[in-house]
Amino acid sequence: xTTMNVMDAVVKVMEDEGVEVVFGVPGAAIxxxxxxxxxxxxxKHYSVRHEEGGTHAADGYTRVxxxxxxxxxxxGPAGTNMITGxxxxxxxxxxxICITGQAPTTVLHKEAFQAVDIVEIxxxxxxxxxxxxxxxxxxxxxREAFRVAQEGRPGPVLIDLPLDVQKAEVEVDFDxxxxxxxHFEKPAPNPNAIRQVVEMILAAERPVLxxxxxxxxxxxxxxxxxxxxxxxxxxxxxxxGKGIIPEDHPLYMGVxxxxxxxxxxxxxxxxxxxxxxxxxxxxERHTGDLDVxxxxxxxxxxxxxxxxxxxxxxxDLAVVSDAKLALREMSRVAREMTDxxxxxxxxxxxxxxxxxxxxxxxxxxxxxxxxxxxxxxNEYFDRDTIFVxxxxxxxxxxxxxxxxxxxxxYLCCGQAGxxxxxxxxCIGVKLGRPENTVVGVVGDYSFQFLMEEIAVAVQYRIxxxxxxxxxxxxxxxxxxxxxxxxxxxxxxxxxxPDSEYxxxxxxxxEAMGALGRRVHEPDDLQDAFDWAVRTSEERRxxxxxEVMCERETNAAMGLSIDRINEYEPILDGVxxxxxxxxxxxxxxx
Length: 589
What we know:
alpha/beta, Rossmann fold, 18 strands, thiamine pyrophosphate
């Protein structure tokens, strides 16, 4: 009887599921799968420098393509290194499958080298974590993994493969593609519930549509805009919903929240009387004080996961549905119930505050103020540019100032917020959308977490641009309302090529075969961006624009009501807005 290795069957399943890109780090306990993968003509493998970097690269690939990301690693620390990436995907509803090698089943209980119970470790940060103990279960375990990762609220899966299971043989006439991918349905809304939603919108004087990241994952942008325009409802995306509606659209109301927000959005939110959340989480950084957030307005919550409904506060109406299907049904019912509406006083109010409650960005200071960096970013890069960013003061400034016009064009590890995410995520994003300019906006501290992944992009000729806001100061920690003296811990500078800023990040890029340029003057930013985009594509390597920023710039965020008197409001009502929903504190211009 002629046989084939069971890992060959697993690779054929992945091919049949549409996998084209895999990230990973090879090691002894995963080599049978790697051998099978080397025979594939459909799947390209990219060797990353760290398993966490592999999860983030796969994450970025998924966010721009909608395809399930794949990351491989060996046993022991390879799997534990993936936990941060799994948590990030779980928090932001990103479908990913991580595959780990494992010691043979016969020695798992005998202190085998690098044998850790990765399934138990991964369970809290995955939708499903499983160890396959029988070779005959492999094909359908992988089929189920793709279904689980994508069904309902998407998320990550971990599959652990003992070495003896990987080495098993099956008959060559076995067809692993027989039966095909497992079917799953997206839940459609209850028609009566949708009719109630539309009735509540028509009865409201100042309604708001609030789409979150789930609406982007559902590819519901066009459906959202169609409904908003028909009923003339302002749209306030959550931070994770940035890009679902162009920020120059007349109905764009801005982002509400504590940090990544606009003060005109917070002011308008406090005037609203109905908020319809679609695929959002009502996360703490968005809502702040729930007593203030929920007061004097009604809420509808539409989400694909019934376990999400009422998790933070009880909405007046809850609807279980895929975001796209819900919005389509709302548009259909709205057309039955009313004629297309004209913009009224509420939409005019949005335009009024959006054009007046603005913050200063045209600073000419040296060192450069972060606000000026984002002003130049908005002016230079076109609407098709895909931005990737992570967590820190630069993320907060990005949420406050950066303009976005298309879904899946502003990507951030929002809920988990792992530092270093954007460096490998840019790799996956560029592989998924090679025709687009990809720009990672990064802080100096975040860059140092996973900067080794620059070497991966150089190795595989993957071009992208990094714009670094370097203040060498852990600015968010220093600014944080912690009531602790943190100055002893936040300074990252030391004596070096530039004594105020420590590490020479341009030299780091060059050491790995990439390129970079330091910018000290704000008027030089446009030329630096132009050089970086052109050089990156010509040389096919990452290029860094390192902007030497003011060390102590504060972001307007997170102040309690008793401190608002320290700031001068520029319009009536800003004081109350900033104190309760936050994000509206004016700069000292």
